[in-house]
Amino acid sequence: MRLSRYFLPVLKETPSEAQIVSHRYMLRAGMIKQASAGIYSWLPLGYKVLRRIEEIVHEEQQRAGHIPMLMPTIQSADLWRESGRYDDYGQEMLRITDRQGRDMLFGPTNEELITDIFRANVSSYKDLPLTLYHIQWKFRDEMRPRFGVMRGREFLMKDGYNFDLTKEDALHAYNRHLVTYLRTYERLGLQAIPMRADGGPIGGDYTHEFLVLADTGESEVFYDSDITDLKFGDRAIDYDSVEECEAVLSEFTSRYARTDETHDEAEFAKVPAERQRSARGIEVGQIFYFGTKYSEAMGATVQGPDGKPVPVHMGSHGIGVSRLLGAIIEASHDDKGIIWPEGVTPFHCGIVNLRQGDADTDAACESLETALTNAGLEPLYDDRNERAGGKFATMDLIGLPWRITVGPRGLKNGVVEVTSRRTGESEEMTAEAAVARIAAIYGR
Ligand code: P5A
Question: Which residues of 358-393 are buried (b: 16+ CB within 10 A; e: fewer)?
């Protein structure tokens, strides 16, 4: 992509309404624009990162056998009356009346809708287990939307729902989701710690939130510092194996880690004093087991092995897809701008032309762009007629992990410069070697 043809409305000034670094950088890097309080347009650069995150979430869900689908944003109030949540949900729910006078709502979550789909189509235990998920916009009329996409009113969520015959099966689904979430967050370059939490309006008392530690986080958390040494890594896991999934759950949840809602001073005191930590965190996901709460209320039963109807055991699992952009930036930036982890970067690398209009330099940049594209990479080529300082500042702000700088002086010696955004270290090499280096980094 040529920057001169792209739409990247970078702001020079720091917007005064943004209180935290991720919000400031997302506005300055031209990733989002507020449409109204807590509601954002996703400009091309922000949209690209959002899509990358979605791709990773899809891959990890499907790796575990979870099935993608898509439910609508607008739901009928009647379903929510069946579960009893229409009145319970309160002012966070955006209620809409259609022209026929029917009560509708913009979905804050989808337990009712998916249970309705299930009961209409599944009648035998032989069709279980089943886990369906989608990635769809949600609306919660938050009292205080703030920090940009971090606490939006309209936000993108991956939400999944499991249906199982027994509690044991449903707990396996819970553990399996925990494993998929650990993998997902690590691929996004984040450490997200599962912590015992509260069920809130979703229900159930068996639930974990995933928290990214950050001073700007809205949740107060308490944990044993040993937990931060745990890494899932790229271990192979059989998602059908109850034992393997259970072992991961117990490895990652046996140390003390709780949000303030479930914090227990007496339990916390058992952690050696030098390992006790209290901090702030960003909630990037939550998993729930709530048993038959919805299936009983809505009559979602299957015929069990003995021929008798039984309500299915369910859980739901959410990832804050749009919130993740904010969380990643909070975890990965410096005073010049964003530093994208390779897994989610909007472009694999930038190309900076130091002497735009110089025939040889232009030609070298163009052939570099072609070679990178042919290697399956997507570079962003800054071909604008701007000073080098301005081009570097833009590249630093938008945070591409790698930059290739091309100028007449280097070309005379047959080299370009490859710079890491994270370390700032540069290395000179031939253009071919630069392409090979970047391709290898991305496993192309
Ligand atoms: C689980 C999936 C649920 O809604 N029902 C379906 C369950 N869980 S949750 O914890 O309430 O939300 C899941 C994740 O969504 C993100 N999130 C938000 N992101 C941005 N702005 C908001 N206002 C917002 N509210 C929730 C969080 O990451 C949360 O963990």
Answer: eeebeebbbebbebbeebebebbbbbbebeeeebbb
- Among candidate residues 439, 162, 164, the one with its CA nearest the CA of residue 287: 162
pLDDT-based confidence at 56, cuts 50/70/90?
very high
Task: Please tell me the distance between residue 285's alpha carbon and the centre of ligand 1 in angstroms.
Answer: 6
How far is residue 294's CA from residue 173's CA, in Å, rounded to a whole number? 17
Residue nearest atom 17 of ligand 1, based on CA coordinates: 320
Reported CATH class of domain 10-338 = alpha beta
Domain boundaries along the sequence of the chain: 10-338, 349-441
Nearest-CA residue for atom 16 of ligand 1 = 320
Residue 168 pLDDT greater than 90, yes or no:
yes
Minimum CA distance residue for ligand 1 atom 18: 320
How far apart are alpha carbons 7 and 30 in whole angstroms? 8
Q: In the prediction, which pLDDT does 17 show? A: 86
Q: Whose CA is nearest to atom 13 of ligand 1?
A: 318
Q: 393-422, pLDDT tens digit by residue?
A: 999 999 999 999 999 999 999 999 999 999
> What global pTM score does this model have?
0.97
The answer on pLDDT for 14 being more than 90 is no
Taking each helix axis from N to C end, the angle separating 321-331 and 44-63, rounded to the nearest 10 degrees, works out to 110
Whole-number pLDDT of residue 200: 87
Strand-pair partners of 282: 212
Instruction: Provide the CATH topology of domain 349-441.
Output: Rossmann fold (3.40.50)
Is residue 202 over pLDDT 90?
no
What local confidence, expressed as pLDDT, does residue 179 receive?
A: 98
Choosing from 198, 286, 287 the residue with most ligand 1 atoms within 8 A of its CB, the one to mutate for a pocket test is 286
Q: Give the mean pLDDT of 307-325.
A: 98
Give, for ligand 1, the residue of 42, 80, 323, 324 to mutate: max count of ligand atoms closer than 8 Å to Cβ.
323
Ligand 1: centre distance to CA 192 (Å): 15
Please tell me if the CB atom of residue 142 comes closer than 6 angstroms to any atom of ligand 1: yes
Task: State residue 218's pLDDT score.
Answer: 94
Cβ–Cβ under 8 Å, residues 278 and 221: yes
With a 6 A CB cut-off, is 323 part of the ligand 1 pocket?
yes
